[in-house]
Design a protein that fits this description.
There is one protein chain. The protein has two domains: 30 residues; 97 residues, Immunoglobulin-like (Sandwich). The termini are far apart. A hairpin with a 2-residue loop joins strand 4 and strand 5. The strands form two sheets. Strands 1-6-5-4 form a four-stranded mixed β-sheet, with no helix packed on it. With 147 residues, it is an alpha+beta fold. The protein is built from one helix and eight strands; from the N terminus they run αββββββββ. The longest helix has 24 residues. Helix content is 16%, strand content 33%.
């Protein structure tokens, strides 16, 4: 290996230290405060397909009755609650990593949708919401005339 002479950058060590410190604080916050947080956010996917927008949210363990889906213009609201297991008799918990409590998620859609044509299906812990784009928002192909 060759010896390489490098220019000394005195502030680079401070930037690196600052980044390491931020990572440390984030880790500690997750370890100590996650169990006492009262809300959580499900992960989502937003996909556009065949003139529809499909939003999939992972929310296992949530009862259908505890879900609420609303649409206003180009904003989708998903909220609900996952209840913690109340029966603890004869149980000794060694680790609890799943989040419980209320959640809400606001999704900015790529365009306004037809609110009367929204369909929501909850299966295997995944909420799939299909939103139909209005005709005015759909892409239209224009034929080119050759002369």
């Amino acid at each position: 290996m060759k010896n390489v002479l490098r220019l000394w950058e005195p502030f680079q060590d401070l930037v690196s230290f600052d980044n390491d410190l931020d990572g440390f604080y984030d880790s500690m916050a997750r370890i100590f405060f996650a169990p006492v947080l009262k809300s959580w956010m499900p992960t989502i996917d937003v996909v556009e397909n065949n003139g529809n927008i499909e939003v999939r949210a992972e929310i296992p363990g949530v009862n259908k009755e505890d879900l609420k889906v609303t649409v206003e213009g180009d904003i989708l609201y998903i909220s609900g609650e996952r209840n913690k297991e109340c029966e603890t008799k004869d149980k000794k918990f060694h680790r609890i990593e799943r989040y419980y409590g209320k959640f809400s998620r606001t999704v900015n859609l790529p365009c306004s949708v037809e609110p009367d044509k929204v369909k929501a299906v909850y299966k295997d812990g995944v909420l799939t919401i299909t939103l139909q784009k209005p005709e005015s928002a759909k892409t239209k192909e224009i034929g080119v005339e050759v002369k």
